[in-house]
Amino acid sequence: MGTATRHEVAAPALDERDLMRLTNRELDDVFRANPAEPLPAGVHRGTALIFNGTLACRIIAKLAYLFVWQGKRVDLDGRALVNRITPFRLPLIRALVSRDDAWVDGQACTLLDYSKTSLVAKMVRDETRLVAPGLQLGVVWLWRRRVAWFTLRAPRS
Questions:
Q1: What is this structure's pTM?
Q2: Nearest to 54 by CA among 25, 17, 20
Q3: Would you say residue 1 has pLDDT above 50?
Q4: How far apart are CA 48 and CA 68, in angstroms?
Q5: Helix (H, G, I), strand (E, B), or coil: what is residue 72?
Q6: 81 in helix, strand or coil?
Q7: Residues 6 or more apart from 67 whose CB is under 8 A from it?
């Protein structure tokens, strides 16, 4: 009698559409289960995740991308970034990038800190973790309250 071979199949990597379908609790679980990794230099395409887990999320994500926020451009040294805002992708609203403990769970995250660099976003704190190759999941804190999620897709090498 032969022994049965166990074939393990790796779970497919998450993408932006998968994350749009998840509830806040599920996104929280994904965030908690993944590591903090630095953001590589370059332009990262952003996707806003608002009302995630609903059909509205996909619609809002498309509208936000077209008219409000297209992502972030990380400096070559990886220590700062600027948001790409408006349909013209203007480089506005700067943040410092560092490693810190996440407010979500007290574990390491990549922190995007606007408190020292922006008058309009001084009260914003973003935390990210790598959830798939080239894909960061971020949480937006506004006055210490979690208000939204987003993704950043790393530039292709």
A1: 0.90
A2: 20
A3: no
A4: 10
A5: strand
A6: strand
A7: 86, 87
The tens digit of pLDDT for each residue in 19-56 reads 999 999 999 999 999 999 999 999 999 999 999 999 99
Tally of domains in the chain = 1
pLDDT digits (tens, 9 = 90+) for 66-80: 999 999 999 999 999
Look at residue 3 and tell me if it is in a domain: no
CA distances from 105 to 31, 97, 129, 142, 148 (A): 9, 19, 12, 17, 16
Cβ-contact 138, 125 below 8 angstroms: no
- The answer for residues whose C-beta is within 8 angstroms of residue 144's C-beta and 6 or more apart is 103, 125
Assigned domain for 157 exists: no
